[in-house]
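ARCHIVE CARD
CATEGORY: sequence design from structure
SOURCE FIELD: tokenized fold
FIELD CONTENT:
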């Protein structure tokens, strides 16, 4: 992550911060046009386009299939240290407990005149979850998988497809696959960025389309989700991840460092 800090000593320094923030408002006019071209290409060429983009941006020697087998997921999950698997399990249980309490339920009421009021809550048939690999695949966002897959499971969604970009050697970080294995998710694809969103929205021979796309990503992922909204449902358009740290001499340096590191996995 590209970090930049501004030291604000007095109220007179705030205009300096405002000018710095103003520089960040426009990420570039070429993003949307580039993403539209990717969406159109995947819609027209399907798997061939997915392979081309993956080889160009993620893994030069990438070979199909894009979907991992259940055995590959299980073997990779088994390679994760037991302590780390335990942490993932603890997080999953906490997340599931919260969303079980949050789940909406159907209800009906019959009035004295015989009319019936109420609502019926049903899950969508399928969701596609985008899980970023982090900078260069070095900081996998395991929490993104847990925080999106578990609510879908609680809601009763039958099909959960996970897309995550491969690393330079074509592999997926074992910790992500450990989380998928823990949740009994067996549909995991080695494909990322805007072309993954296109595949989830339009479908390809190897990656069937879904009803809803959820999960964060960089500006290309966010733009792709915005452009396919309406063809599929989306969770939200995630904005840039920011952190503001106010600290003085009384602050614990390790806590300040932890707050800074919590954003270091994200795209600049």
């Amino acid at each position: 992550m590209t970090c930049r800090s501004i030291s604000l000593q007095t109220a007179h320094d705030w205009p300096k911060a405002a000018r710095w923030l103003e520089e960040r408002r426009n990420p570039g006019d070429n993003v949307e046009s580039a993403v539209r071209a990717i969406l159109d290409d995947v819609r027209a060429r399907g798997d061939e386009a997915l392979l081309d983009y993956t080889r160009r941006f993620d893994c030069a020697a990438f070979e199909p299939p894009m979907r991992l087998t259940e055995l590959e997921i299980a073997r990779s999950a088994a390679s994760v240290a037991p302590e780390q698997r335990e942490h993932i399990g603890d997080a999953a249980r906490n997340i599931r407990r919260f969303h079980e309490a949050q789940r909406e339920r159907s209800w009906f009421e019959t009035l004295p005149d015989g009319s019936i009021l109420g609502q019926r809550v049903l899950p969508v048939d399928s969701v596609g979850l985008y899980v970023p690999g982090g900078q260069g695949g070095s900081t996998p966002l395991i929490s993104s998988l847990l925080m999106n897959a578990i609510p879908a499971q609680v809601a009763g969604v039958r099909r959960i497809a996970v897309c995550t970009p491969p690393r330079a050697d074509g592999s997926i970080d074992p910790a992500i696959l450990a989380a998928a294995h823990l949740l009994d998710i067996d549909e995991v694809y080695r494909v990322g960025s805007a072309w993954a969103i296109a595949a989830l929205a339009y479908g390809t021979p190897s990656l069937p389309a879904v009803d809803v796309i959820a999960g964060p990503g960089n500006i290309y992922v966010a733009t792709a989700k915005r452009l396919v909204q309406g063809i599929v449902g989306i969770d939200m358009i995630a904005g840039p991840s920011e952190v503001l740290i106010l600290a003085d001499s009384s602050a614990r340096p390790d806590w300040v460092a932890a707050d800074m590191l919590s954003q270091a996995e994200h795209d600049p």
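CARD ANNOTATION: Residues 133 and 140 are 4 Å apart (CA to CA). The mean pLDDT is 91.
SHELF: design records, drawer C
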